[in-house]
Amino acid sequence: MKTIAVVTGASRGAGKGIAIALGQAGMTVYVTGRSVAATDSPYGGTVAETAELVTQAGGKGVAVAVDHTDDHAISALFDGIRNAHGRLDILVNNAAALIATTASGGFWERPLEAVELINVGLRSHFVASYHAAPLLIASGAGLIVNTGHYGAVCYHHGPVYGAQKAGADKMAADMAKELRPHNVAAVSIWMAGLDTERARAYLATLPPEAHPTVKRESPQFTGRVIAALYGSDQRMTLSGRALIGAELGALLGVTDIDGSHPPSHRYSMGGPPELHYSLTTRN
């Protein structure tokens, strides 16, 4: 029986890589996002293109155009999955409205639209999980993943970004508590700097000496980690935690697409070490 997964915000970037990696694991992956034409974003990418790449990778990609500000559209997505499969195994909450997150100046000097990340990035995570939960329970062994970042505990891109990441961590922890009796896990997985279309475009604007020296993770790495966690006997043990993807990958024996082991940035991202969540300190 094929594993059924949903990856939100998967037209490009992290979501696209995660969806492809789940396809490589042989899963049926529902790919959601607003982009249906390459011109819909300056970074290109569409839900149909990602779904096709999922299929080429060995899974089955299903493209569904969804505006994650529209609760009815999200409900319809999961109604369709219920009608087609009667269950869901994995939900990856990745959709995020990254508006002006890298703009200069204080939060009061940036476009107010930046706060949309709380709507599509936190509220949308909850709405998707709300509709997915009964289907995950029906699977008998479900998993919710919120894509996270070190910005939950250190300064990165400003207060809106930090609030969204910290909120997604706490949301996963509290959902995990209520879902545990149903054998459904919920975690946040922190990603480091990713080699995405958006990141490449931003780095191209910087002088060579300003480019980071640390190798960036591929977007597929997190998807590989998610697939390994889902198939692992550690799934419920780790439920409720905010996990550094590089550390979780090392625990589960997962490498990046080039065979490398991405480093953890636990002690280099600026937050006090004692505040960082880990594989051992969160129950």
List its traits.
alpha/beta, 7-stranded parallel sheet, globular
List the helices and strands and how they pair.
Elements: E1 4-7, H1 13-24, E2 28-33, H2 47-56, E3 60-65, H3 71-85, E4 90-93, H4 116-139, E5 143-149, H5 159-179, E6 185-191, H6 197-203, H7 219-230, E7 242-244, H8 245-252
Helix pairs in contact: 1-2, 1-7, 3-4, 4-5, 7-8
Description:
The protein has 283 residues and is α/β, with parallel strands linked by helices. It is built from eight helices and seven strands. A seven-stranded parallel beta sheet has the order 3-2-1-4-5-6-7, with helices on both faces. Helix 3 runs parallel beside helix 4 and helix 7 (219-230) crosses helix 8 (245-252). The longest helix has 24 residues, at 116-139. It is globular, with a radius of gyration of 18 Å. Residues 271-277 have low confidence and may be disordered.
In order across it, which strands form the biggest sheet? 3-2-1-4-5-6-7
Helix content: 25-40%
Average pLDDT, rounded to a whole number, is 90
Label the overall shape: globular
Distance between the termini: 31 Å
CA radius of gyration is 18 Å
Uncertain parts: 271-277
Report the count of strand segments. 7
Q: What is the succession of H and E elements? A: EHEHEHEHEHEHHEH
Class of secondary structure makeup = alpha/beta
Strand proportion? 5-15%
Number of helical elements: 8
**Major β-sheet, in short?**
7 strands, parallel
Summarize the structure.
With 283 residues, the chain is an alpha/beta fold.
